[in-house]
Specification:
The structure holds two protein chains of two kinds. Chain A is mostly beta strands. Helix content of chain A is 0%, strand content 51%. Chain A is built from no helices and eleven strands. Chain B is built from no helices and eleven strands. In chain B, strands 2, 4, 5, 9, 10 and 11 form a six-stranded mixed beta sheet that branches. Chain B has a five-stranded antiparallel beta sheet with strand order 1-3-8-7-6, with no helix packed on it. Classes of the chains: A mainly beta, B mainly beta. At the A-B interface, β4, β5, β9 and β10 of A face β5, β9 and β10 of B.
Chain lengths: 112, 112
């Protein structure tokens, strides 16, 4: 069975650019959450979506946005990239919420 | 003060030893507690999930929760070199919400 998939695996951008990261949840899972993990730290919650509705938002600026599609896949968009946005972006899926979340391999973003 | 505190290590143990990991937290509303294992440049993998106080055992892994002390632990018996990874504690208030609060992670090195 396929787990959570994310694309691309790696990405290099320059300051001020825009980036779109993609996530496909485990088949049957309807909830997707996004996390940012800076090197040496634990993941920080960005968003949760369930049935295409935003269920939760972490303490991130409005430059960060996301959406969930009818097939439950999701996109994370980041505008006006800053050097500090360099991190591993993780997507997690769960059946309906948060009790058992399965993480994808992440997208490693480097902002120069 | 961070909501979840975890010693970053590194924690080095010889093969076969017991690995002892712990986290403390400040938010008494946390009800659900998890331990994830993360290999270098990979996404976190769920190891243990517990609810409220008590012990839970799964193979070589034992998770303990002491809500009165706001303290959780993970023990790994008969440690193997393949257990070398970063171990992240995570917790949430409500399983319906995707927001997990992570510790910074403890790097564990098991030497042959």
């Amino acid at each position: 069975d396929a787990g959570v998939t994310q694309s691309p695996t790696h990405l290099i951008k320059t300051r001020g650019q825009h980036v779109t990261l993609r996530c496909s949840p485990i088949s049957g899972h309807k909830s997707v959450s996004w996390y940012q993990q800076v090197l040496g730290q634990g993941p920080q919650f960005i968003f949760q979506y369930y049935e295409k509705e935003e269920r939760g938002r972490g303490n991130f600026p409005d430059r960060f946005s996301a959406r969930q599609f009818p097939n439950y896949s999701s996109e994370l968009n980041v505008n006006a990239l800053l050097l500090g946005d360099s991190a591993l972006y993780l997507c997690a899926s769960s059946l309906s919420g948060g009790e058992t979340q399965y993480f994808g391999p992440g997208t490693r973003l480097l902002v120069l | 003060q961070k909501e979840v505190e975890q010693d970053p290590g590194p924690l080095s143990v010889p093969e076969g030893a017991i690995v002892s990991l712990n986290c403390t937290y400040s938010n008494s509303a946390f009800q659900y507690f998890m331990w994830y294992r993360q290999y270098s440049r990979k996404g976190p993998e769920l190891l243990m999930y517990t609810y409220s106080s008590g012990n839970k055992e799964d193979g070589r892994f034992t998770a303990q929760v002491d809500k009165s002390s706001k303290y959780i632990s993970l023990f790994i018996r008969d440690s193997q070199p393949s257990d070398s990874a970063t171990y992240l504690c995570a917790m949430s208030v409500n399983p319906s919400w995707g927001k997990l609060q992570f510790g910074a992670g403890t790097q564990v090195v098991v030497t042959p």
